[in-house]
Amino acid sequence: MIVYYPPNHYLHQILEVINGVITITDESPERVEVIKSALQEHGGFIFKKPDICNEKLIGQVHDKDYLNFLKNSQDWQRLEFPSVSDYTKKSKSPAHFIAKKGFHIFDTYTPLTKNLWLVAKESASCAVSASNLLVGKKEKVVYALSRPPGHHATKNMAGGYCYLNNAAIATQNLINRGAKKIAILDIDFHHCNGTQDIFYQTNKVLTISIHADPNRKFPYFTGFKSEIGSGPGKGYNYNFPLPEKINDRQYLKILVSSIKIIKKYKPEYLVVSVGFDSYEKDPICDFSISLNGFNLIGKELSKLPYQTLLVQEGGYCLKDLGKCALSFLTPFL
Ligand code: SP5
Ligand code: ZN
């Protein structure tokens, strides 16, 4: 299996503010290094550097003002957190930097860093390069080991450790290259509020997310069953919010229902946003999904007839992250 790896991701190192306290984050560079080592040790994976993708493509998914805001990051010498949130719910990016941070960042977990634009673009480029190999059936499945993750990034906001929506940008690339129907399945522990936001009004993309009930977990404001899409996109967005302690068997049932919806849609491509933070030992998880569970999930998805793009999202149990990745990926080999 071909794996795209972002060569400069380690330049992006963050801290997070939780309830006013600056704290070591779980979103560390070691996450992708642990996965990379495990795959290399196992064998059967070929690592490649991404080709840096076109900024016009990124601009089809994210607003111009938001991208300019991220691009200016090379000037910042320290982590920049939001201070004032937008109490007016304006539609236009404000002038002042303090206001911009409040307008374009929705939490205190996702600071701006010095090399942000470079690393965020590389992360998205992993997903885009991977998607390019699916076109013309060159490859059946390709894995983008993206970092920073992407699925919480909306058209104009960063959050949940995400800046550019890697899976959405790759999906847009597939649309540009002629795809009429693409299914995105998000199995990260958290709702993909960004991916949902970006494709909410289109029927060209079916978005399905399986995640912790937002009444209990981040991102809190979205991920409910009632969010079904709007306009032409009505009926093309599905959310499966789940209770705590859900086990392999119960999760697999939801996965099988999701697969039924995907089969009915008949997509040309399947994009899977893969998070290993639904693992039972993950520090921020309250599900009971085992390593064998990830293997069963991988088996179900690898049986499908679609060209498949796997995009890395969350996953924070450094000790077992390599095992999670191998359990999930080996059925595709
Ligand atoms: C991509 C992804 O999985 N983003 C998730 C962001 C949710 N973060 C909220 C939880 C913050 C708790 N952090 C605890 C750190 C203790 N060391
Ligand atoms: Zn997550």
Describe this structure in words.
The protein contains 10 helices and 10 strands. The protein has helices at residues 30-42, 55-61, 64-71, 97-104, 116-134, 166-176, 193-199, 248-265, 291-302, 321-329; strands at 2-4, 15-18, 21-24, 46-48, 141-144, 182-186, 205-212, 237-242, 269-274, 307-312. An 8-stranded parallel β-sheet has the order 4-1-5-10-9-6-7-8, sandwiched between helices. A two-stranded antiparallel ribbon has the order 2-3. The protein is α/β, with parallel strands linked by helices.
- Mean pLDDT across the residues is 97
Low-confidence residue ranges: none
Ligand names? N-[3-({4-[(3-aminopropyl)amino]butyl}amino)propyl]acetamide, zinc ion
Briefly note the structural class of the backbone.
alpha/beta
- C-alpha geometry: globular
**What is the string of helix and strand elements?**
EEEHEHHHHEHEHEEHEHEH
Radius of gyration: 18 Å
Major β-sheet annotation: 8 strands, parallel
Could you tell me the strand content as a percent range? 5-15%
- Percentage of residues in helical conformation: 25-40%
Total helical elements: 10
